[in-house]
Amino acid sequence: MSQTTPYDDLIEDLRRLKLSTIRSNLDAQLRLAQSKSLTYLEFLRGLVSEELKGREESNYRRRLKSARFPALKTLEEFDFSFQPSLSQEKILQLKDCRWVANAVNLLFAGQSGTGKSHLAIALGLEAIRCGYRVFFTTVADPMDQVNVAAATGQTLSLQKKLVKQDVLVLDELGYLRIDQQQGNFLFRLVSQAYEKFSLVITTNKDFSGWAEIFTDQMQVTAMLDRMLHHSFIFNIRGDSFRVKRRKMNPTGEKP
Asked: Which of 79, 190, 232, 252 is most exposed, with the fewest beta carbons within 10 Å of its own?
């Protein structure tokens, strides 16, 4: 039976300790230490630094996958010049994600195609970069599940899935009517979020128009009271980006 070398033993120990980045970069770090005559402390610090970077990158990818964004949109890609009603300065100030730390809600109101979902995704992406857990869903998706969950006794399970986040993005509120049972679910969701985690909501309705969406008007008032208490509200009054693109490329051909 062949004996293992100290190097082999170290690689095995690193595997058992789940220090995968150090294990992958060990040879490169050894060469660097030799070429630059690093001290033991400098060598060890370099290994630990690489491991931390590797774990941060792995955690970022995990959070990004769990967020379930339909597409990746960034603030750098957003054309603020096309939406003069929107303060670029106020939006960019949100990049530090203090709003998440303080459980502040973000509400984007405007007609279809004005960039509400883009901004919601972009700021959700910034939150992920800051280490927060984010989950994206259209309002219609959990609302479709509510009646089934109620019939099978899974309502609490559905609710727990949504409230375990630091940021919950609810996209496209206002496109579909919400019945009494669905409204009760959404009200409980907003109540649980209140001063605990952040909601990012996009809607095509002014707040006065929410009465058209929900069956119970008292429920709407109570929900808005909690939702707006700690919030930043952005009303986008510009034109549709999609209409703009069609005018720029009327044939529909890819550029």
From this structure: 252
